[in-house]
Amino acid sequence: MNLKQVSKIILTSATQNVTLTGISENCVYMLALNNVHVGADGGICDMQPTTSGSPDTTNNIAISWTLVRANNTYQNFGNTPQDIFRFTDGMSTAPASLNAIAFLYSWYDSNEYSYVTIQPAYNHGSEGVRGHIQAGVKKETTSHDGVYINTNQSGGGGFQAGSQFVLYKVTT
């Protein structure tokens, strides 16, 4: 497996959202989030596919995931329908940060549903480190050209400078 960088954003100032486009072929893409952090407690990190560079907010995403916590408890989730794929469920403030990998399958193919697997790790207050394995599907046959990533966390300005978002095309 080889990776070819398609789009990269390293924040130089705080923002509520980022958009990475460049998905242009029917192949697997990988999204890497590195040192993504928010300015105050409680920030989530969500993702939606983009069509023509704009978020697809259609409420037809189904997900299933298992959450693992450092305090030795775990929890299974399954949600449908919803309009987002979720990387976090409440990050704590810096120096805690989110690091994650997501694989995007059939994202560009207008004849197939769009699938994703997500593997994040982040700090969540008194629980310590959290991680989960998530799989999801966008149940529509639309060609998507990228991802829109946002946070609900407005206190402290949202995603902070230094947060990195990179989209790769997986090649052989």
Walk me through the structure.
- The chain is an all-beta fold.
- 0% of the residues lie in helices and 58% in strands.
- It is built from no helices and 13 strands.
- It has strands spanning 2-10, 17-21, 29-36, 43-51, 54-55, 61-69, 74-82, 85-91, 98-105, 114-123, 129-138, 146-150, 164-171.
- Strand 10 and strand 11 (129-138) form a beta hairpin.
- The chain is globular.
- The N and C termini lie close together (5 Å).
- The mean pLDDT is 90.
Brief account:
With 172 residues, this protein is mostly beta strands. The chain is built from no helices and 13 strands. It starts with a strand and ends with a strand.
Quaternary structure annotation? single chain
User: What is the 3D form?
Assistant: globular
Helix content: under 10%
Portion in beta strands: over 45%
* Category by helix and strand content: mainly beta
First CA to last CA: what distance? 5 Å
Mean pLDDT: 90
Low-confidence stretches: none
SSE order: EEEEEEEEEEEEE
Main β-sheet, spatial strand arrangement? 1-13-3-9-10-11-6-7
Radius of gyration: 15 Å
